[in-house]
Amino acid sequence: MSTVTEPETIAELIDDCADIPAELRAAHASTPRPPAPRDWAVDDACHAQVVGLEDY
C-alpha cells in the first residue's frame, strides 16, 4: 500500500483495500429505522376543524 499517491487503477485500489486490517473492515450495526407511520384516518375532531370551510 502506498500512502504517497492515490491509486491510479482499480487493481491498485483493491490492493490498497486488502491491506486494511480486518478490525477496521468489520461491519458495524446500523442505526435502527424509525417506526413506520400509522395509517391516517379522519376522526370527528379532525372533521370538526374544517366544518364550514367549504363556504370560505
Structural commentary:
- The chain is mainly α and 56 residues long.
- The chain is 36% helix and 0% strand.
- It has helices at residues 10-18, 22-25, 44-50.
- The longest helix is centred in the first third of the chain and has 9 residues, at 10-18.
- The chain is rod-shaped and about 70 Å long.
- The model has no long low-confidence stretch (mean pLDDT 82).
Core attributes:
single chain; 56 residues; mainly alpha; 3 helices
| DSSP helical segment count | 3
Q: Strand fraction band?
A: under 5%
Number of strands: 0
Query: End-to-end distance, in Å?
Result: 71 Å
Which regions are unreliable across 5 or more consecutive residues at pLDDT < 50?
none
Morphology: rod-shaped
Q: What is the overall pLDDT average?
A: 82
Helix content: 25-40%
Q: Concise description?
A:
The chain has helices spanning 10-18, 22-25, 44-50. With 56 residues, the chain is mostly helical.
Task: Walk me through the topology.
Layout lengths: L9 H9 L3 H4 L18 H7 L6
